[in-house]
Amino acid sequence: MVNRMRATRSHRNNRRSHHALEAARVSKCANCGAAHRSHAICMNCGWYKGRKVIDLAAQATKRAAKAKKQSAETSAK
């Protein structure tokens, strides 16, 4: 079956003119000054709206200990 009224390229592109992606909004962290997405915690220091939400230093040490344990297990085999 054939379209009776075919949409031309210009009509199709006019319809799609609102489909472009926008750049993410970036805010400055009040605690450390790093750039972060608006309404999201700062992944540099773990603060949001003037309070500490995540202890990133503790997570980093835990991640390092886990990696060290895994490397020790693989080298022992």
Properties at a glance:
two-stranded antiparallel ribbon, 4 strands, about 80 residues, 2 helices, two-stranded antiparallel sheet, alpha+beta, elongated
Summary, kept brief:
The chain is built from 2 helices and 4 strands; from the N terminus they run αββββα.
Q: How is the largest sheet built, in terms of strand order?
A: 1-2
Specify Rg, calculated over alpha carbons.
25 Å
Question: Helix amount, in percent?
Answer: 25-40%
The percent range for strand residues is: 5-15%
Poorly predicted runs are none
Computed structural class: alpha+beta
Order of H and E elements = HEEEEH
Please, how many helices? 2
> Biggest sheet, open or closed, and with what strands and sense?
2 strands, antiparallel
Instruction: Report the principal-axis shape.
Output: elongated
Give the integer mean of the pLDDT values: 91
Query: How many angstroms separate the termini?
Result: 66 Å
Number of strands: 4
Structure, described:
By secondary structure, the protein is α+β, with helices and mostly antiparallel strands. It has a domain of 53 residues. Helix content is 36%, strand content 13%. It has 2 helices and 4 strands. A two-stranded antiparallel ribbon has the order 1-2. A hairpin with a 2-residue loop joins strand 3 and strand 4. The longest helix has 21 residues. The radius of gyration is 25 Å and the shape is elongated.
